[in-house]
Task: structure prediction
Amino acid sequence: MKTLLNHSKLVITFLLTLSFFMMNPAFAAKAELPYADQVPAGEPMAIDGIWKNAVLNKNFRFEGGRGINLDPWVAYIFWKVEPEMVAMQNMTQAAPGKFIGYNLIDKQSFEITLQPNGIMKYKSAIFSSDFVPVQLDYPDQMAAELANMGGGSNAQMQAEVSPEPAPAPAQNPEQSNCSNWAIDPETNTPVCMD
Result:
């Protein structure tokens, strides 16, 4: 009995130590993802710009059919994803407000559905999340896209927009630390609830 108890303590200690190393980003391996300069951009899309993933609370830049990571984070406790790594590629528009592509982290296809309020719903077989606009490269094309979906050309969105494509990642200070998003029922726009 004493041997069994000692063995159990040893197993528990080992598992706790292992879980510490697995949960600590310093011990995660660098993700084997290409960087943005290694994956050619495709044609510009209405959704090009900076978006915050509401589940991960991380910013991504959609640009020419690619989803480029802007913030460091750890995926599935094993892989360190660094800024400028391409997490999504081969994105194409399947229908008005619908985009499909391939997630390099999950190694599977995904679908993004643009909502009339400007939020994108991401869905794959193992992960789903909202993407909230932070800064759009082509606000006029986004308005036209929303109008093509029946959302109206004046659909309200909480995003900083610029007439020219954004040259570098930039965070809206009000949104950079938000982890709890909701839709304002009066304006139908995303609102930070933190």
Notes: DSSP finds two helices and 14 strands in the chain. Residues 31-192 form one domain. Residues 66 and 89 are 4 Å apart (CA to CA).
